[in-house]
Amino acid sequence: MRSTWLLLCLGLLALTLVRAEENEIEDALSDIDLDENDEEFLLLLEEKNKNHDVERENEIAQKLAEAQHKLLNPVVEVDPCETMFCGAGRICQLNKGKPECICIPECPEESDTRRHVCTNKNETWSSDCAVYQQRCWCDIKAEGCRDPDNAHLHIDYYGACHESRTCDGEDLKDFPRRMRDWLFNVMRDLAERDELTDHYMQMELEAETNHSRRWSNAAVWKWCDLDGDTDRSVSRHELFPIRAPLVSLEHCIAPFLESCDSNNDHRITLIEWGACLELDAEDLKERCDDVQKAAPHLLG
Ligand SMILES: *[C@@H]1O[C@H](CO)[C@@H](O)[C@H](O)[C@H]1NC(C)=O
Ligand SMILES: *[C@@H]1O[C@H](CO)[C@@H](O)[C@H](O)[C@H]1NC(C)=O
C-alpha cells in the first residue's frame, strides 16, 4: 500500500520534473511529506538508477572506443608510399615508418644509344633517369653532384646530342601539313587503342566522319592535352612531350614550335596553335575535357 503511494509519487515527480534542475528536484522532494523509511527507499531507487546510468555510459564509451580504434588502426595495412608522389629522379622510401622522397639511388644501365638524352647544356647522358638523378643530387647538394648548375639540368631532346641540322625553307613550309596529319593519326591511334576519354572519343569520331573537322579536332585535342595545368595556354615547358621525342627525327619540329608562339610571350594560345598549323580560327572551338586531368595515367 505504502509502496504504491510512493511509486505514484515518483511517477508524478518524473513527469513534472523531467527537465528541472537538480536543486529544484531536491526542493520538490522536501515539499512532499516522507517518513524516514520512504526516504531510504527513494535513495535506494536513486542509487540503482545511477548505477544503471553508469553501466550504460560505459557501454557507449566502449563502443565508441572500438569504432575509433578501427578507424585509427585499419586491418588492411596500406603502404604509405603508395599515395606519395615523388618527382622525376626521386623514389619514395620509408624512414621510421614515414614516407619520404629520396634521390633514386641507381639508374638502370643503358647501352642502347636510343635511350641517350641530350640536355640543355648540349651534353649527352646515358638515360633520362641519369639526368633526373643528377638534378636531384645537385638539388640536395649530395656528393654525386658534378656541377652546382646541374640543379637546373633538363632534357632538351631524346637521343644523343647532334649537330643542329638546319630546317630549310621548303621543309618548314611543308611542316604544318605534316604536323596536322601526324596529330590526326596519333589521335586515331589512341582512339583505336581505346585510350581517349569519352569526350575526346566523340571528337575523334567527328573528325573521322566530318572532313572539315578532321584537322581542327585533332589540333584542339592535342592543344588541350599539352595544357597540363589547364590554364588555357600551352607554355614552352608544356611542349616537352611533343618536342623532346621528335627533335632527333624531325629537325623542323623545334623551329616549327618556335614559330607557333607568334607574339613570343612563351605561351601558345589555341588561336596561335591553329595559325601555325594553318587552320581556320573559326574551326577552332576550345573543347577541352578537364575531367581527364584527374586521370592518373597523365602523371606518367
Ligand atoms: C652540341 O654537341 C654536338 C656534338 O657533341 C655538336 O656537334 C653541336 O654543334 C653542339 N651544338 C651546339 C648548339 O653547341
Ligand atoms: C561538319 O563540320 C562543319 C564545321 O565545323 C559544320 O559546320 C557542319 O555542320 C558539320 N557537318 C555535319 C554533318 O555534322
UniProtKB/TrEMBL annotation:
What Gene3D superfamilies does the database record attribute to this sequence?
3.30.60.30, EF-hand
Compartments, as annotated in UniProt? Secreted
Q: Which portions of this protein are annotated as coiled-coil regions?
A: 18-64
- Would the keyword Transcription be found if you checked this record's keyword annotation? no
Per the UniProt entry, the signal peptide is 1-20
Q: Which SMART domains match?
A: FOLN
Q: Name one GO molecular function term.
A: collagen binding
Q: Cite the SUPFAM superfamilies for this sequence.
A: EF-hand, Kazal-type serine protease inhibitors
User: A GO CC term?
Assistant: extracellular space
Among PANTHER family, the record links this protein to: BM-40, SPARC OSTEONECTIN
**Name by which UniProt lists this protein:** BM-40-SPARC
